[in-house]
Amino acid sequence: MMAMGKKFTKTKASAEATSKSTEQPPRPPSPAAKVAEEQRRRDCPVDKDELGRSTWNLLHTMAAYYPEKPTETEKETMKTTLDSISKTYPCTHCAEDFRKDLKTNPPAVSDRDALAKWMCELHNRVNVKIGKDVFDCGLVKERWLDGWKDGSCD
Ligand SMILES: Cc1cc2nc3c(=O)[nH]c(=O)nc-3n(C[C@H](O)[C@H](O)[C@H](O)COP(=O)(O)OP(=O)(O)OC[C@H]3O[C@@H](n4cnc5c(N)ncnc54)[C@H](O)[C@@H]3O)c2cc1C
């Protein structure tokens, strides 16, 4: 396991919430603070949430483009890839839960639709665990492959 877990044990949001808990009442940001936020560098190390978003981008897009009729080798490669990510993911507690989840819910690698659904359900189990909304898996193709039907991604 990579030794980066400590950095990802506390989100920026929770750190801010902790540090602000004694401030009464909350003040609106000053114009200077707004400018500083707008000018914040974008080439900084990622936190747990940015890492998560980037990883879900990769995982859902991999599933969306997985073959409709995969060969046995492609199925094995996908299983190995997910297994490797679960062993190297640099958020220690996220990775531990991911490994447990893979044992209980082995990846559905039979074809593209099955994998995209499996990935959506995996993501939803994480969403539930951390108190986020459940995503409608019926929309997974629009979200990750074709773009929304209203044309807003065209
Ligand atoms: C394998 C893994 C395990 C993780 N475990 C933890 C953990 O234990 N604790 C923790 O705090 N964070 C964990 N994370 C990070 C967490 O899942 C989020 O990425 C992070 O909290 C940022 O959330 P977000 O609201 O920006 O959207 P994200 O959850 O990152 O989602 C990005 C986008 O994906 C789409 N989406 C949401 N749900 C689904 C779904 N079910 N199917 C398809 N698309 C969907 C939405 O459009 C959403 O905007 C984990 C990430 C990964 C990849």
Automatic annotation (TrEMBL):
It catalyses: 2 R'C(R)SH + O2 = R'C(R)S-S(R)CR' + H2O2. It comes from Panagrellus redivivus (Microworm). GO terms for cellular component: mitochondrial intermembrane space. It is found in: Mitochondrion intermembrane space. Its cofactor is FAD. The lineage of its organism: Eukaryota, Metazoa, Ecdysozoa, Nematoda, Chromadorea. One of its GO terms (molecular function) is flavin-dependent sulfhydryl oxidase activity. PANTHER family: ALR/ERV (PTHR12645), FAD-LINKED SULFHYDRYL OXIDASE ALR (PTHR12645:SF0). Residues 44-144 form the ERV/ALR sulfhydryl oxidase domain. Its main location: mitochondrion. Residues 1-49 are annotated as: Disordered. This is Sulfhydryl oxidase. Residues 35-49 have a biased composition (Basic and acidic residues). It comes from the Eukaryota. Pfam families: Evr1_Alr. Keywords: Disulfide bond, FAD, Flavoprotein, Mitochondrion, Oxidoreductase. Its EC number is 1.8.3.2.
